[in-house]
Each structure stands twice: as C-alpha cells, then as structure tokens.
Amino acid sequence: MRAPLCLLLLVAHAVDMLALNRRKKQVGTGLGGNCTGCVICSEENGCSTCQQRLFLFIRRDGIRQYGKCVHDCPPGYFGVRGQEVNRCKKCGATCESCFSQDFCIRCKRLFYLYKGKCLSTCPLGTVAHQSTWECQEECEPGPWGSWSPCSHNGKTCGSAWGVETRVRGASRAGTEEAATCRVLSESRKCPIQRHCPGERNPSQKKGRKDGRLRRDRKLDSKLDVRPQRPPA
Question: Most buried of 9, 32, 86, 159 (most Cβ within 10 A)?
Fold first, then answer.
C-alpha cells in the first residue's frame, strides 16, 4: 500500500517540476525577454521593476506589453530617472533620436533638425542642407578684419586725406554658408602722412621759393645805383 502511494507522490512531484521549468524557460526566452536586472519579473509581462540605475523599457505588442531592464534606452527613446523607477520614454513622432521630450538629436526622414525641433521646412533666415537634413543660419558674421592701407584714388601717397576700409565676412568655413552670407564693410577717413617717392614736400617747395625771392631782392638792392645830381 505504501509503495504505490510513494510512487504516486514521486510522479506528481516530477510533473510539478516539469511545469515550473517550462514557466522559467518561457520567462527567459519569451516576448517579455529575460529577467536580467529585474527586481520583480512575471511570466506574462516580463520586468516591472528594475535594479538601481537601470531603465525599464516597455515594449508593446498589440494589447500586451513586456518589460525589460536596460542600461541605455534604445533609439527612439530617452531615459527619465525617477524616485521609484527609471523609465524609457518614446521620442516625438517626427524624432528618430532625442535627448529629451523637447530636444531632438536626429529627425526622421523628410524632416529637418533646427534647434532640437524636427520641421518639415526650414524657417526664414535659415538654409536647408540636404546632406545633414539640418536648418542652418544664413549668416553668422565673423570678427572684423584689419584696416586696409589709407589711400586716395587707389594711391597711398600724394594727398592729405584718404580712406581706409575693413570687412567682416562669414565665420563658417563651408562654401554653402559663405555663399549665403553678405559681406559687411565699413570705411573711415584717414590722413596720408607720407609723400610719393621723389616728390617734394609742398611746404619745402614754398620755403625754397620764398628764399630765392629774398636773395633776388637783396641782389637787386646791391645793383641798384641811382645817378647823382651834378654840383651846382
């Protein structure tokens, strides 16, 4: 009587262990993924609570959802840390990769990235770049350049006053950006403080001319001999 009872108990225990192993295998390889990093894990829904510093990623399949604990959220999601659980949240509908709900890093096809937003067309004052699918500012001027030599009618000598100019171009090195950026320039009046090579200073010319006139007058005064009156 005892032998059949013991045999029956052994068979029942073997059946229970087989069912338990089957459930563990379903949890490890099923749609819910494995329970690595989980604190609470179920056969039907996978992980519901993760270990510290891990993110809970919920994957939906129709009306069912399955949880998995990950170190980094997959593309199209961003991590949000909370007091009880860290979660992976989905980016915006037009965003392929994002840093947060309000700041996109890369947009989906046919959308342009501009200041963290995904736009169908670039706003005014920007240029759409097909290679990077980004909207960039039309013009970002660089620093002012040096003043040009002071000149007058294309000459840097021979006049009292001239004009010097400096320009301010695009700060970007790319040809596409530079082509859309208007070059700024400004001019100012400047003194020309040197004379052309071989040309005498006008003040020196005048001084030498005045000196010749004085010498000529002295010579004329010496040669001026007036006739004397005959004695009475």
Answer: 32
